[in-house]
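Q: My collaborator sent me two sequences in one message, no labels, and asked for predicted structures for both. Can we handle them in order? The first one she listed is below.
A: Yes, handling them in the order given. First sequence, followed by its structure tokens:
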Amino acid sequence: MSQDQREAWFAKVVESGLHNQIFNPADVLAHATPDVLATHLPPELLSKVLAASLAAGSMTPDRVLETVTPELLAKHLPHDVLWACIQAAAARAGVKS
């Protein structure tokens, strides 16, 4: 599997999990912590997150994921971080591995 295919797969799984309320933005950011985001996101994307939060008056998980979409998460974050989020959601839903 190529890196592009892997990124597309993670983006679709995270997008689907959010859309179908298998997990929520706070669940994602429990794994994609501020330290993880600061380490792996490019400076211009971090700047957009900060600007959007300042314009809205608060930084919330929903607001972060409005800027850092599932596609961007899959492109920039280590996939083990996203996988941990997916695994935790599956465990909460009673999915056995």
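Q: And the one she listed second?
A: Here it is, processed independently of the first:
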Amino acid sequence: MSTASSAQAYHNNLVGPVMRAGDLAQAVIEAAKVDNPGKEVFVDDKRAYIRIHTEHEMILRQATIEEELGRPFRMNDLEVDLSSFAGQIESRDDSVRFYFAKKL
């Protein structure tokens, strides 16, 4: 890997979901901001889908998504609108974590 490629790879340590556009995606955007304080949340809206990401790690909590949606929500329902994701994923009953195990 060249020095330029290494530098570029360092800046590509973005993780997070790629979701179908809609109410849930909008709630996840807001939840990402709440659940990841001090991190910049990047949103790339492609109309049909929305890429939501932060650097190195993103945590999404069920309670925060429920609050943003204004209704009950089960974390496994996230999979219905989750078309892809960047990084690795760790799912729990009440949260999901997108992360990289190693940083460049």
